[in-house]
Every structure is written in structure tokens, then in C-alpha cells.
Amino acid sequence: MPRNSIITTPWSSNQGPVFDTPTFAIGDVHGQADALEVMLAHIDALRAEDDAEEIIFTGDLIDRGPESLRSIELAMEACRRFDTGTILPGNHELMMMTCLLRKGTREDIDRWYHNGGAAVLHEVDPYEGCTISEAFDKVFERLDKDFIASIAEGPTHIIRNRTLFIHAGIHPQQDLTTFLGQYRFAPPMDSHWAWMRQPFLSWEGGWNQHQLDLVVHGHTPATTKFIKADEEAIFLLDKIDDHHCICLDAGAMRVPQIVAVEFRGEQHRLHVAQISKPE
């Protein structure tokens, strides 16, 4: 039988931001619903009954893994249990919605299909008996309408206590309002908040120019292997000291492992949920 495990790091300074509202953020899930279920059960056990609390998903719930649709259902249920819950759009949700809502071009369809969308279509059409249009309709029918609205029309980012929660990242040298205001369904580009990697990932100059102290993001895997200890989780994911960032992508595109960050007051800690086969 698979073995479920949670790794939790010690509390660490936020180096500035103070969260009066306990806040949890979960990164890339990529269809690893079992790992998400373990994580959400763990988070529920940490919650205080009398506290107002917030949960944020930073995008890429879907694609590549075996259960994208259940991952969405679990995330939506979690958002409804919290006082405030938000699912931000990742590039994979945006690729899917371009096909389902916006009647994407053949290029759009191929891009989503070959970047993990095939796994979602397999969930609704395992024997490949449907046309692509019929399979799209089946996926759309399975999606929570509030989820559709959140991806198509909801917030693309959240700022709390000089901390930005976003899917991929921001450009350190571009105007932040203009950068964040980019059209969500724009074609994939390196300088978009849903696709950004460089120069964001290598930036060490801080975010004061954007009136921010910290960026919490996913999109780029910090690892594609199982994390073995809390020290390794800190080394791979907690980049506050040098990059003023926390990465919430622990390689769910390859392994059933997801990560969350928990903010309380002036501190934070990481939680890593894994579903691994016994050795």
C-alpha cells in the first residue's frame, strides 16, 4: 500500500510581513489528488476553531497527474471551509480554459494537450471514443461553475501584508501594475505572470521597488524528487534569505508531492505532503 507522509519545517521569520490572519497557500498540484487530500487533512488539523483563516491556491491544480478533476473538487471544498478561499489561475488552467471557453485554435488545443491536458481528457474519455469537442464538453460539465468563474474572471494574484501570491512570478524591473494587468488569456510568453521564469527566479535585489517584501509562487519545480527531510525542504523551497521568495512547486508534475506554506504572525513554516510506495 502507498505510504502517506507529512514533512513540516520549523517556524522561520517572514523578515517583515506580519499575518494577523493565519494564511495557508498551496502550490502546484498537477492532478495529484491523493497528496492534496493528505495536505488538506493536515491543514484542517492545524486550524483553530476561533480564528479567521485564509487559504490560497497558486494555480496548476490540473494536468499531467491522474486526478485533475478531483483535485479541483478538493480545492473548491477547501475554499468553502475557510473564511476566505481563492484559487488563482496557473498557466495550465488558462490553457484549459482557452480551449473550453474561448474555442481555442488548433495551436491552442495542441499546446494544452501536449502540456498535460491529455491526462484531463483521459479522465472523461478513458477509451478515447469521443471527438475532441465531445471530450471538451465532458470536462466542462464536470467543472464546478465557481471554479470556472475564478479562473476566467477572478483575481490573478493576491497581496497580503506586502506579500504577493501569484502563479509564476513577476518582473523585477517592470512596472508592477502594468505587469500584473496583463490579459490572462494572452499567448504564452516569458514576461507574463502565469509563465514567468527569468529574470524573476535569479533576482536577489528584493521587491521594495514594487512595495513588496515577499513573493510566494509556484510554476517552476524546485525539485522533481521526493524531499526526505525538513532541512532539504527549507533548502529547496524557502528562498527568503537570498531571493525574497517562497517556492510552492515541489515537482507534482513528476511525483505525488505538494507543498504548502503556513503564515502566522511574523513567522511561517512549510508543509510537504507525499504519497510514496513502500520501499
List the main descriptive attributes of the protein structure presented here.
279 residues, 5-stranded mixed sheet, alpha/beta, globular, Purple Acid Phosphatase, chain A, domain 2, 7-stranded mixed sheet, 34% helix, single chain, 12 strands
Can you describe what's shown?
The chain has 279 residues and is an alpha/beta fold. It has one domain (3-276): Metallo-dependent phosphatases (Purple Acid Phosphatase, chain A, domain 2), CATH 3.60.21. The chain has helices spanning 33-46, 68-81, 91-100, 106-124, 132-142, 145-153, 176-180, 230-237, 240-243, and strands spanning 3-8, 12-13, 19-26, 54-57, 84-87, 158-160, 163-165, 214-217, 238-239, 245-247, 257-265, 267-276. Strands 1, 2, 3, 4, 5, 11 and 12 form a 7-stranded mixed β-sheet that branches. β7, α7 (176-180) and β8 form a beta-alpha-beta unit. It is globular and about 55 Å long.
CATH superfamily: Metallo-dependent phosphatases
> For the residues shown, what is the average pLDDT?
93
For the record, give the distance between the C-alpha atoms at the N and C termini, rounded to a whole number. 10 Å
Low-confidence stretches: none
Structure, briefly:
The chain has 9 helices and 12 strands. The protein is of the alpha/beta class and 279 residues long.
